[in-house]
Amino acid sequence: MRLTICDFTKTFDRTTVIKDMNLVVEDGEMLALLGPSGCGKSTTLFAVAGIHRVDGGAILFGKRDVSHLPSQKRNVGVVFQNYALYPHMTVFDNIAFPLTIRREGKADIDRKVRAIAELAHIGDLLARRPSQLSGGQQQRVALARALVRQPDVLLLDEPLANLDARLRLEMRSEIRRIQMETGITSILVTHDQVEAMSMCDRIAIMDQGAIRQVATPSEMYRQPASRFVAGFLGNPPIVFLDGEVTGDGGFASRGVSLPLPGRLRHLEAGRPISLGIRPEHVGTSGGARVSGQVVFVEPQGRETLFDIELEGGAILRSIQPAGDDARVGDRVDWAVDSDRLLVFDRHGNAV
Amino acid sequence: MPFQRYLLGLGFLSPALLVLAGLFLMPVALTGIIAFTNMSISTGVSGGAHVITGNLLTGLRDDGVEPAALDRLAETVFEVTPEALARARAAGVDPAFVADIEERLVGRRFTDGRAFERELKGLPHRPRAIRDLKVAADLFGASILNTRFADAAAARQAVVGVLPDAPEATVDRIVAASYTGWQWTTGNFARLLSSPDTLRLIVNTVFYVAATLSFTVFVGLFLAIGTFYLPPATAGVFSVLWLLPRLTPVVLYAVMWKWFTWEGGFVYTAAEALGLPAFNYMKGSVPTAWTIVILVNGFIGASFSMILFSSALKAIPIQQLWASEVDGASRWQQVRYIVLPQLRWPILFVVSYQTLSLLSSYQEIWLTTNGGPGRTTSVWALESFNTALNNYTGDLQYGLGAAMAVMLVVVGVTLSVIYLRLFRFDDLVGRPKIEF
Ligand SMILES: Nc1ncnc2c1ncn2[C@@H]1O[C@H](COP(=O)(O)OP(=O)(O)OP(=O)(O)O)[C@@H](O)[C@H]1O
Ligand SMILES: [Mg+2]
């Protein structure tokens, strides 16, 4: 079911947390709501779930306006960050709860709960209490409980935040698998870009209560709409250099001069811009070159991360396949893939 | 060294141990001991003497002691002895008349007062007035009845003096029964078991505890859940208001209830204005007296349980409540399936704690209805207190009162065990979170 958030505004005690937000999640799509802490991700999610009241705008499930329906009537499944399992009930009763409330038949409930538990790989844990489960198992129970009544929309609020790195990796693909199998329109709230990129069809980047860009993961990585988005995505993060356009369609800043990507050669000289240089575009291949001194080396196993200080004092970051070619203090002269450089204007918008 | 450290530790502990022993263990042990005696205000708490009283004889007759012997014990014997003569002189009887008696009747013994009086009438210096004669005659009379004997031997000697040919067993029985000090006995319990008052008291107590407890739990739950769903500021005001019964000193609280319900009080005036029967609702009728007793105690309990339930409610993560709403639960279903089950432990605590404290508390009843009208709202603890320590006839029966207190303790302990079983206490508490 297609989910539409239209001019949504949310105010807590006279502080407007979200203003005129617009977002569409297509039928069967999994969309990541990505943003820094406190930007309003949970607030948006809870408004969709009906936990928070909408102060302005509308929320539509398909063509149905649910803005003023209580959460009981919205048929959404929510997985909370701390799972919010009912501690006094067994796993079976936890998953069955939405059905029990609807007074479905015992046999029906049993069949549905077992089916969804199979799907979430927790079929043998049904008799346990939440306190007797590991974090990952609790997470699956919460997911099963959210899915069991076939919700129109599935909402996941940082479902992996409490898991360790390994389990997170495993659950990422599990959740995605279950979502694809059930085909339920979903929103995944996260502040982890890897999670967002690996699990979702599209990403909506949020900052300070507003959506900055909605795009597929690769599109967003390659063509960020703003400096904020470019800075938010990518690990190790992108480096920005502030400077201006030179006469020959290049860029100059504090002793660094680089050619602009081919499509931007026509920019008028003297215009202040900032250049975004991703670490993977420095030191491997490309038409332009920079030289400087290695000031920092961080081996990361398969790859190695370098910081190099250019003549003017600017620091560039480079990530390269591991090898022991440069050490701290070495002078290097590395290639830069100038066609992949990102260019932003004074207001941080992509040029 | 370690030994000295132990001593030091004990030294530091000793004041606490003394206080514990003196203030807690001693009273409990003493109550247990006194329960098995017949101590009362008339036996005193130290030793006693031997006295044969009219009541004692009646009792013995009921117990099947030969009536003839008992009649003889009750008789007055008139004997002209030097002591009796001295007594008569000292009492101001005409010396000439006394001299007559001494001369003619010394050493004589009469078991019949009339015969002695007849003898006296025949004496030359007898007084004119029959009354004076009777007074003089009485001075020679002596009865074993109501005479104090310091010990059993003296009492036995006196009894044998009157009943020289009574069987040994009868004498023993009379001497033993005449003891006025306290004795070891299980009679208190036998009496409690057989008395019809006991059943009525039990019914009263069970009703009192059950009704007050229900009020406490239900009103406490209602308030806690109600304030939980209210905006914080409003909830705060309500909480404080409902805490007042708990915060007010009990005497003041009882006095306020009296003002509230007595003639001319609020309830009285309101009832009058509404055309309802206006009377002293606290003492005027049994149903209203019970209502007041239950409300007086119930409000105190409710404010206590409200605090407990409220804090337990606040411990439920808000996400659980959200989750249940998203899962489709209405407010009522949320309370029923999510909130109440998680209040099981505080509810168990309130029920068991309040049962025990209600069973043993009587001060609020004592200060309000004092068990009235009649003894209709009296409960076991109040009756025990009245029996042992606060009887307006002044006949304090320490032994019986202690026996009642002991039975209360036994019932309390049994109930706690049952509660713990019933609510699967170990299951609730669960395994320790930290393993040793
Ligand atoms: N109940 C509330 N009352 C007042 N302000 C609130 C309330 N809930 C959230 N806020 C504010 O709204 C803003 C957005 O909160 P929200 O919980 O949506 O952030 P988030 O994006 O989910 O952050 P995180 O990643 O840390 O969970 C924050 O600045 C927060 O302080
Ligand atoms: Mg959040």
From TrEMBL, chain A:
Would you identify the family this protein belongs to, as annotated? Belongs to the ABC transporter superfamily.
Indicate the secretion signal residues. none
Just give the chief location class: membrane
Q: How does it sit in the membrane?
A: Peripheral membrane protein
Q: Does the keyword NADP apply?
A: no
Sorted keywords for this record are: ATP-binding, Cell membrane, Membrane, Nucleotide-binding, Translocase, Transport
Known PROSITE patterns for this protein?
ABC_TRANSPORTER_1, ABC_TRANSPORTER_2
Q: Which domain of life is it from?
A: Bacteria
What are the protein's GO molecular function terms? ABC-type transporter activity; ATP binding; ATP hydrolysis activity
Span of domain ABC transporter? 3-233
Q: Which Pfam families match?
A: ABC_tran, TOBE_2
Name a GO CC annotation attached to this entry: ATP-binding cassette (ABC) transporter complex, substrate-binding subunit-containing
* Cellular compartment(s): Cell inner membrane
- Which species is this UniProt entry from? Pleomorphomonas carboxyditropha
Q: What is this protein called?
A: ABC transporter ATP-binding protein
From TrEMBL, chain B:
Q: Which domain of life is it from?
A: Bacteria
Q: Which residues form the ABC transmembrane type-1 domain?
A: 202-419
Q: Indicate yes or no for the key word Transmembrane helix.
A: yes
- Compartments reported by the entry: Cell membrane
The entry's cellular-component GO terms read:
plasma membrane
Specify where it is mainly localized. Answer: membrane
What are the TM regions of this chain, as residue ranges? 206-230, 237-256, 289-309, 398-423
Which terms under GO biological process does the entry name?
transmembrane transport
- Name the keywords, alphabetized: Cell membrane, Membrane, Transmembrane, Transmembrane helix, Transport
An example of a Pfam family matching this protein is BPD_transp_1
> Entry's InterPro entries?
ABC_transporter_permease (IPR051393), MetI-like (IPR000515), MetI-like_sf (IPR035906)
Q: Which CDD domains match?
A: TM_PBP2
Q: Which PROSITE patterns match?
A: ABC_TM1
Q: Does the record bear Amino-acid biosynthesis in its keywords?
A: no
Membrane association type: Multi-pass membrane protein
Q: Which family does it belong to?
A: Belongs to the binding-protein-dependent transport system permease family.
Q: Write down what this protein is called.
A: ABC transporter permease
Organism for this UniProt entry: Pleomorphomonas carboxyditropha
